[in-house]
Every structure is written in C-alpha cells, then in structure tokens.
Amino acid sequence: MSPKITGYKTHDIRFPTSLSGDGTDAMNTDCDYSSAYVKLYTDSELTGYGMTFTIGRGNDIVCMAIQELAKRLLGKDVEELFANMGKTWNYLSSDSQLRWIGPEKGVIHIALGAVDNALWDMFARSRNKPLWKLVVDMTPEEIVNATAFRYITDAITRDEALAMLREKAATRAEREAKVRELGYPAYVTSAGWLGYSDEKVARLTKEAVQAGFNHFKMKVGADRDSDLRRGKIIRSIIDDPQYLPPGTKPRDPNGPDLKGKNAGPTGSVLMIDANQVWEVPQAIDYVKSLAEIKPWFIEEPTAPDDILGHAAIRKALKPFGIGVATGEHAHNRMVFKQLLQADAIDVCQIDSCRLAGVSEVLSVLLMAAKFGVPVCPHAGGVGLCEYVIHLSLIDYIAVSGTMERNVLEFVDHLHEHFLYPCSINKNGRYNVPSNPKEGYSIEMHEASIAEYECPHGSYWKSVRA
Ligand SMILES: [Mg+2]
C-alpha cells in the first residue's frame, strides 16, 4: 500500500542579508533573502521538502497561499500523484477559487511552485535518487506526462516533444558520465552587486578568476558612469592573463563555446543585469553606451512582462553584438513561449521558484530546446543554486543535449543552511548532486529554521530585543 499525504507545515524563513549589501541591484535595494518553505508529510517516513523564494516582506503571504494549495493534497495516494505529475500539476493549479487570484501568476503561482517542488522532492526520495536522476531515468513518454503542457501546444506539441526526447534518449548515458566528470559550467554574480565598493568588486573578481570561473556578471542601471567604471575594473582583471590560476591557459575567444559572447583575450565573458529599471528606448541607449565593456548580454532590461519590448531591445542591440536575456521574473510558461516566438531573447533564464515547480520548468526546457535558445537558469538568493543544478542537468542530459555554451548562475551565499548544499569544483563548475537521499536538495537544517523563522526565530527575537 502506498503512502498517503497526511499533513503539511510551512515556515516563513528570512535571512537578514540586507545588512551586508548582498543581492543589491538597481531595483532591489534591501533584500532579506527568504524562503517560503513547506514540508509535506505522509503516513509513512516519506516526507517532501519544497520552497519558493522571496526577498522578505510578503513571505508570510506566500506561506498562507502554500497552505491553501497543500490542503488539496490531503488524503491523496502519493503513487497516484507521482504516476502522472503533469496531471497532478493541473489538479493543483485548477482550484477555481484559488485560480481567480492568479491565474498562474503572482503569489498563488510561486506558492504552487513550493508545493510542486515539495512533491517532486518526495518523488525523488521515494526512489532513492537525486531529483535530476529521477527525471533523466524516465522514458520520453514519462517526461512528457510529467510536463505542464496546457496552453503551449501552439509552440510545441506532445508529439514534437516526444520526438525530441527520443532523439536524445540513446546518448543520455554518455552525457551523464561526461557531466559527472567535468561538472556543469557556472558563472558568478557575487562580485558585481551594486552595494559593493570598487575595491570589493576588484578583490572578489580576482578571487572568482582564481576559483576557475570565466563568465562574470555585473549589476547595472543605477548610474551610467559608475557602471562604466566598475565594468572597466572587472574587464581589466578578467582580460589580464596574469590573474588566471597557475597553469591555466587562456581560452580561445572564438572557439565554439565562446563565439558570439564578446569574450576578451583570455576567453572571459562579462554579462550585465539591469533588473527591470529601464523604459525600452532608455534601455537601448544606456546599453549602447556600455558597449566598450563588451557584454555578452543585457539581462532584464525592462519590465518582465513586456515581450515585444524585449524583442525591440534585442533588435536594436544586435548590430552592437549584445544579446538579451530574461526570465527570472517571467511568471509562467506562456511568457517564455511568447519570448521565444517573438525572437525576443538570446538566453532563457528560468527560475526554479517563480515557475510553478519542476513540471512547468520541463515545459520551458522543451520549448527552449525546440527554438534553439540556451537555458541558463537564474540562481542566487537562498536555495535557488541548490535547485537549478538539477534543472540544468535534466536539460543537458535529456532535453537539449548541450551544455557547452550554457552557464548556470552561482552565488556563494547561505548554502550552509542546507543538508545537501550545492558545490563548485576547482574549475568553477557545479558538482553533480549524487547523494541518493537528497531528493531535490532543499531540506534545511532544523537549527537554521529555529534561528531565522520570522517572527519568532531566535535571530529575529534578538533583533527586536
Ligand atoms: Mg538577474
């Protein structure tokens, strides 16, 4: 007899990152990285852990929405839920009253992300596999059944998805072996937060080069002169062979993995991120004026829902060799569908917690592969790096079949709160999560919950006292 879901508990967990300037950009000036965290219980030992991410106030509202959705799972047989995760996702997103406060956007949708992520975690734990391995061991039919397919069949049909997955199925094992050996390519953002001084930016950039990274991202959009100055500081370090780790040769900036990315003489790539601050014409002018620091792409140049605005920016920047990336605030698969259909993006930045969990992520991975756009997930915050390595592994092994031009965001914050934290190897690449007990890698230490739960955790009590 398979277990049934018997209960759930949410935790509003907030880390006081606003005190250090971590995570500051042109839009988000005082982030307290937060997790709206949920545990799903069964009548057996089996438990699922899930979360979605916020930056502080409002995290309690998300927790309330999670409770409303998790309630719909009470009494359900887990094997019936696991047998068709796409159907389960449709069930969870189809409560007509809760749907009204979306649909499929805002608080209710990111709350669904936490619940769907928790169910996938439970599914992976029940099979003694990390989440990515659970998915890449599925048949193409099982993966398509696990995908949120509603409203995207004008961009990709189930049959097309099946054909794509089948084409890649025979060579999955080769790619799995390769990525286990090499790790998955990553880039760093931690050096380029707006709240950091020039000295701190230079020091962190040198450290990142030493750690083996060769893609770097900087926040822009608050002050053009300062952006240009910081961009030149970063470029002067990443383009200078003297800072490379001992024994490392510069990479060929025109090689197949770097071509078209505006790589400098050592093969290093710079990306810039405006976090939505500009009007469309302003974005075009501002980014043109930063052309001399040679970014690969501008990320989130304008409002995340403005699909045609992104398309216009991409068209205008094309002659300058600068691309457009977005997705961390693209609130559902239909936004990604239209970004792809409108030729609006060069890089697809899914977010593991803004999309409503693994099932909706699968739909975007499939569409991006069909349109030939690389997926470079958004991460950072708290827990996002733990999540996205699984998604990029699924993309590489089972869906797109390529990782050579992809880079997965890495930010070195708050990993110590997780039982199975992500990690980076000496070549600046993500290690493959390989503990059969870790599920989707998001279980948090009980001591961290006790300290940072808001408002009654020991940290927040001490602040008030
Ligand atoms: Mg960003």
TrEMBL record:
Sequence ranges of Basic and acidic residues compositional bias: 249-260
Domain Mandelate racemase/muconate lactonizing enzyme C-terminal, chain residue ranges per copy: 198-319
Any GO BP annotation: amino acid catabolic process
Keywords: Lyase, Magnesium, Metal-binding
Cofactor: Mg(2+)
EC id: 4.2.1.68
GO MF: L-fuconate dehydratase activity; magnesium ion binding
Region Disordered, residue ranges: 240-265
Domain of life: Eukaryota
Enzyme class, UniProt record, top EC level: lyase
InterPro entries named in the record: Enolase-like_C_sf, Enolase-like_N, Enolase_C-like, L-fuconate_dehydratase, Mandel_Rmase/mucon_lact_enz_CS, Mandelate_racemase_C, Mandelate_racemase_N_dom, RHMD-like
Recorded catalytic activity of this chain's protein: L-fuconate = 2-dehydro-3-deoxy-L-fuconate + H2O
Protein name as annotated: L-fuconate dehydratase
Organism: Pycnoporus cinnabarinus
